[in-house]
Task: inverse folding
């Protein structure tokens, strides 16, 4: 693979992780505010929100490397009526702007809690549209290995799985910061952290189930439409495919169970934090390998 294809891997993974993190963070913040009040919810989530923007910016910067001439990037949005690539870029920029507006409102506490939630909801919907546009770019008859229903479905599962585990790691980092800077607040935050990570552990196991339905379905559909791609996946790239499966299974499945158990037992914060970090790292590497295989095994016929 060349630099342009690695740029696509970087862009799609980081953009999907940003959207997933934003959605997960919004859900956690909303229910935490209802249960424990806005102040505790803000303490839990505001610093994690700060991390999403740079991740999205890094992904969008990487996407420029895929263009023949990055200076002409603005021209890529001139075909919104007919091109999914134009829509992908359009929704990417729109999500970045909407997310930034919400972040400023949240940090500066501009407007009411309800108004900020409406802005966050709009940004999340734009993010969902971004992931959909991203997946539709690859739904083309000349690429039979991509032109299957598992492409959009797997993009959404990756979005949520990375979002859940990225926020798990971010919440752990935030908790250690709060404990160091404001010990009086740390006990309440510890309870919220354990509650959140318990849900994250369960969510990662459920999403792993979807992954393990979609992966064999993708292989079966690919074998029916592009036997060369399927042969490469289990032959030339068989070791990478096995490693991808093992990492996602260990990160989202095995460590998801450990995360749930550790979060259910007070006093296990250090273990819980270590498990959250390792689970996120395993799944992130596994998803990168999965996206690598998505591009590396693609074959085409006819005009592109």
Result:
């Amino acid at each position: 693979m060349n630099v342009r294809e690695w740029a696509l891997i970087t862009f799609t993974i980081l953009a999907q992780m940003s959207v997933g993190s934003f959605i997960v963070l919004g859900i956690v913040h909303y229910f935490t505010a209802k249960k424990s009040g806005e102040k505790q919810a803000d303490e839990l989530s505001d610093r994690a929100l700060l991390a999403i923007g740079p991740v999205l910016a890094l992904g969008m910067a990487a996407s420029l490397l895929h263009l023949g001439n990055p200076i002409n990037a603005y021209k890529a949005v001139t075909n919104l009526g007919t091109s999914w690539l134009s829509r992908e870029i359009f929704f990417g920029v729109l999500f970045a702007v909407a997310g930034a507006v919400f972040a400023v409102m949240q940090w500066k506490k501009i407007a009411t809690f309800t108004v900020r939630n409406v802005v966050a909801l709009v940004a999340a919907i734009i993010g969902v549209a971004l992931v959909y546009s991203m997946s539709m770019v690859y739904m083309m008859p000349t690429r039979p290995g991509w032109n299957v229903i598992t492409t959009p479905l797997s993009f959404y599962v990756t979005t949520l799985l990375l979002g859940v585990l990225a926020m798990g790691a971010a919440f752990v980092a935030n908790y250690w910061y709060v404990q160091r800077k404001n010990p009086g607040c740390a006990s309440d935050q510890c309870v919220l952290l354990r509650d959140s990570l318990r849900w994250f552990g369960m969510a990662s196991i459920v999403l792993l189930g979807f992954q393990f339905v979609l992966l064999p379905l993708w292989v079966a559909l690919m074998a029916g439409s592009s036997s060369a791609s399927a042969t490469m996946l289990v032959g030339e790239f068989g070791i990478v495919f096995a490693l991808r499966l093992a990492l996602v299974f260990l990160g989202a499945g095995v460590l998801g169970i450990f995360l749930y158990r550790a979060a259910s037992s007070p006093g296990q914060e250090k273990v819980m934090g270590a498990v959250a970090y390792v689970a996120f790292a395993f799944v992130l590497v596994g998803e990168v390998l999965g996206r690598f295989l998505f591009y590396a095994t693609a074959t085409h016929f006819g005009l592109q």
About this structure: The mean pLDDT is 89.
